[in-house]
Specification:
By secondary structure, the chain is α/β, with parallel strands linked by helices. The protein has helices spanning 3-12, 21-29, 44-49, 66-78, 93-101, 119-125, 139-143, 151-158, 176-185, 213-226, 238-249, 264-275, 309-316, 336-345, 351-359, 369-381, 384-408, 415-422, 442-445, 453-469, and strands at 34-37, 58-62, 84-86, 108-111, 130-135, 167-171, 192-195, 203-209, 231-234, 255-258, 281-284, 299-302, 326-332. It folds into three domains: 3-195, 3-Layer(aba) Sandwich (Rossmann fold), CATH 3.40.50; 203-338 and 409-469, 3-Layer(aba) Sandwich (Rossmann fold); 347-404, no CATH class. 44% of the residues lie in helices and 13% in strands. The protein has a seven-stranded parallel β-sheet with strand order 3-4-2-5-6-1-7, sandwiched between helices. Strand 12, helix 13 (309-316) and strand 13 form a beta-alpha-beta unit. It starts with a helix and ends with a helix. 37% of the residues are buried. Keywords: ATP-binding, Helicase, Hydrolase, Nucleotide-binding. One of its GO terms (molecular function) is ATP binding.
């Protein structure tokens, strides 16, 4: 038995590697830069965890979300690894001081792009041996860095202090453009690339155009109350996520809403309840889902058109991690394309905002926090006109990305095949339940939901209370 397989069995309890895992780990240990694109559920965490036990030094993992960091820390602790920490807002002042003073004692350090700009943290990092650096959910560099988290772009400057340290970039989906952004931002030198097919044969695709918003709500409520989950309902706004959750709860569904405006503790609680099977559905904005370790998600429903094909594939890919049949449904109306563009543009500055920001002291003007954060970054690196041109181009690209996804639903071609083609892949074998354009039988895809007596009593009381209160 070779050393890698031995560590795999002893530390992680697996008898064999999945496709590509061993090759990627070998490259990381050899000190090579690596880009690994594997679908959700293919064991991306193992790719940075296992090599740590075969090389000297500390692994620094740059992660996009607090909840994702906390979850990965807990997973490592369950495995018996005590030398792990997430440096984020969950640490008290005293805890953070202790960690910084003892940084060299940790094998795994999780942190955020924002924390990488902390002077003291960087000073302490420079005193310890770094084995390699991990960019987890690396597509965020391209998808979020230009949009609302410019600290993702600042990673490029931060890495100049670690020129001899190799970088491992991990993500579930990435177009050629996103891969190019990752390579450039992370200063990768002829990286080893492993790109797994994005095709998920056990996920069937269903797309329906409806007449109006009321019909859409009725369709979604009907689908969720008559079929089995677990599932995630993705919607565009905080208000809608709360609305759907209330409607479904009134019908006896174990459901919660989730969005970025909630307290962090509440969001983590809902994520844990969903993962542990205490909730059957979560009605959420796209803030939910990254890092969810739940194998048996049977349904993903979108009540809108996402802002890109990559975002759509990322979100539906959270279903069927166990390989069993699941369904990704998307329902929309004719006005949803414009609505998707409006939502995508909300935080982007207009030309006048950019001119005002460049010509005034930042304390003198009132712009949304996200807009101010974005412009503060670009003011450091671009002229006023260059920034105006940049955001004009970004807006145009956003519109084209939305149109590209919408166009998939406006023809009679296989949805799966079109999604694959967008990532320069071709469909080699069509599953028996593919999409509603070609082979698809809803009875084979979804199990009908049976109401328990408790649920029926709950529904009866809800109905009677509503009759009394209205």
């Amino acid at each position: 038995m070779d050393r890698l397989t031995e560590v795999l069995q002893q530390k992680f309890g697996y008898s064999a590697f999945r496709d590509g895992q061993k090759e990627i780990i070998e490259q990381v240990i050899a000190g090579k830069d690596v880009i690994a694109i594997l679908p959700t559920g293919m064991g991306k965490s193992l790719l940075f965890q296992l090599p740590a036990y075969l090389v000297e030094g500390t692994v620094v993992i740059v992660s996009p979300l607090l909840s994702l960091m906390q979850d990965q820390v807990e997973q490592l602790k369950i495995m018996g690894e005590k030398r792990v920490v997430a440096i984020n807002s969950f640490l008290s002042f005293e805890e953070k001081e202790f960690v910084l003073r003892n940084l060299s004692t940790f094998k795994f350090i999780f942190t955020s792009p924002e924390m990488l700009q902390n002077e003291r943290f960087n000073r302490m990092l420079s005193t310890i041996q770094i084995a390699y650096i991990v960019a987890d959910e690396a597509h965020c560099i391209s998808q979020w860095g230009f949009d609302f988290r410019p600290d993702y772009l600042r990673i490029s400057s931060w890495l100049k202090s670690f020129k001899e340290t190799n970088v491992l970039a991990l993500t579930a989906t990435a177009t050629k453009k996103v891969v190019s952004d990752i390579k450039s931002t992370l200063h990768m030198k002829e990286p080893y690339e492993f790109i797994h097919s994005i095709d998920r044969p056990s996920i069937a695709y269903e797309v329906k155009e409806l007449e109006n918003q009321q019909e859409k709500v009725q369709w979604i409520i009907g689908r969720i109350t008559t079929t089995n989950g677990p599932g995630i309902l993705y919607t565009q706004s905080r208000k809608k996520s709360e609305f759907y959750a209330e409607e479904l709860r009134n019908r006896g569904i174990r459901v919660a809403f989730y969005h970025a405006k909630m307290e962090q503790d509440d969001r983590i609680l809902i994520q844990q309840q969903f993962q542990q099977g205490k909730l059957d559905w979560v009605c959420a904005t796209n803030a939910f889902g990254m890092g969810i370790h739940k194998d048996n998600i049977r349904q993903i429903i979108h009540d809108h058109i996402p802002t890109s094909i990559a975002s759509y594939v990322q979100e539906v890919g959270r279903a069927a991690r166990d390989g069993n049949q699941s369904l990704a449904s998307l329902v929309y109306t004719s006005s949803d394309v414009e609505q998707a563009y409006y939502v995508a543009m909300q935080d982007f500055p207009e030309d006048a905002d950019i001119q005002l920001f460049y010509r005034s002291e930042s304390t003198e003007i009132q712009l949304p926090e996200t807009t101010t954060r974005i412009l503060s970054y670009w003011k450091e690196v671009l002229s006023e006109q260059e920034t105006i041109d940049l955001f004009r181009n970004i807006k145009q690209k956003k519109w084209l990305e939305i149109q590209s996804l919408f166009s998939l639903f406006q023809n009679d071609l296989c949805i799966r095949e079109q999604l694959l083609n967008n990532f320069d892949e071709y469909l080699e074998k069509r599953p028996s339940n593919c999409c509603n354009v070609c082979s698809f039988d809803i009875r084979d895809v979804l199990e009908q939901r049976n109401q328990t007596e408790v649920e029926k009593q709950q529904l009866n009381w809800v109905y009677r209370l509503n009759e009394l209160l209205h």
